Amino acid sequence: MTHKTIIQGHLEFGSSKSYEQVVELYRRRVENFYKNDVLIKEEEIFFPEQNKIIIPRKVVEAAGDKSRQKTTSLLTYIAEYAVAGEVGVWWTQSGRTLDYQHIEPKGDKVAVTMYQKGRKLVNEDGKLEAGIEALGKAIAKHKNHSEAHTLRGQAHEKLKMIDEAIEDYTHSINIYPKAAFAYYGRAKMRKLKDNIEGALADLDNAIKCSLAVMPLYWQARFLKGQFLIELEDYKNAEFEYKLFTKKIFEPGNPNRHMVAAGHYAYANVLFNLDRNKEALEQINKSIETPGEQEQITKADQFLLRGEILQAMGDEKSCYEDFKVAKELGSKEAGKILKEMDV
């Protein structure tokens, strides 16, 4: 199968002087070091009116390994002169990521060091406020720091500061309209504010702005399915979970812990669409999924399978599942058993 190289992201240089310096360095590097053997062209990525490099999404089929490595090296080099932004370089085959390189600014610029400090702090227990303060300093130094706004939004989200989180996510999106993580974060906050239509719009953008090789892409699809179920829009929810349950998540992918929940949600959707045989297949897959799973309990699984079997007329099997669900703590199963025993 053909390999693909996918490049996406942006880098901010803060001033026209820094930007012009980077353009010149880029030209020299491409001509003298890489002999024009790179996967990106100057006219495709440089935006002088914004002092930025923007790579919306560059997909190269069957790119040579040397060309990919040279391109990654070039982007890493010019990122040293940036004050904000990030670029991802994926090497894939048949939907699997064979290699991934995350490129971001380095160095001693205040916007860079405060962002890195803030990122570290918000991931440490009890350090959210300190992280928010550091990220605020990064933003004060470079107001168009999309990643700092997104990360501060996530910190506000953890502190249940919904309005502040929405404000940060919105700033991030306004700065960089392909900020997939910001769309995803704002979707969750909008849902908490009972703006489910706005949340669904944000999830659509999170999906469009991310890649299928990114965990976020599938997390956004999963969450969109949940919101559609709440709206009783089972037909559109079916599309999301059909995709999710067909995806094979490699070891290390956080979505591996969501596989059972995906099959459960798909079974629930099919059950509500009166497609019980297919629903039974999905709930069986959910129950049989090995490993530690999230967002679903064994009680929920056996309760749903009992309901599906009951709808199919299998009284004996559904009774056994309701008993298991009750033993695992399901109050709903206990109510159903009382009604069946009458």
Overview in brief:
With 342 residues, the chain is α+β, with helices and mostly antiparallel strands.
Fold and architecture overview:
This protein has 342 residues and is α+β, with helices and mostly antiparallel strands. Among the domains are: 3-103, Alpha-Beta Plaits (2-Layer Sandwich); 108-213, Alpha Horseshoe (Serine Threonine Protein Phosphatase 5, Tetratricopeptide repeat), CATH 1.25.40. Helices cover 62% and strands 12% of the residues. It has 16 helices and 5 strands. A 5-stranded antiparallel beta sheet has the order 2-3-1-4-5, sandwiched between helices. Helix 4 packs parallel to helix 6, helix 7 (162-175) runs antiparallel to helix 8 and helix 11 runs antiparallel to helix 12. The model has no long low-confidence stretch (mean pLDDT 95).
- What general form does the structure show? elongated
Low-confidence stretches: none
Q: What is the total tally of β strands?
A: 5
- In terms of quaternary structure, the protein is single chain
How many helix segments? 16
Q: What characteristics describe this protein?
A:
62% helix, 5 strands, single chain, Serine Threonine Protein Phosphatase 5, Tetratricopeptide repeat, 342 residues, alpha+beta, Alpha-Beta Plaits, 16 helices
List the helices and strands and how they pair.
Elements: E1 3-12, H1 16-33, H2 42-45, E2 46-47, E3 52-61, H3 65-79, E4 84-93, E5 96-103, H4 110-122, H5 128-141, H6 146-158, H7 162-175, H8 180-192, H9 196-209, H10 215-230, H11 234-246, H12 259-272, H13 276-288, H14 298-311, H15 315-327, H16 331-341
Antiparallel strand pairs: 1-3, 1-4, 2-3, 4-5
Helix pairs in contact: 4-5, 4-6, 5-6, 6-7, 6-8, 7-8, 8-9, 9-10, 10-11, 11-12, 12-13, 13-14, 14-15, 15-16
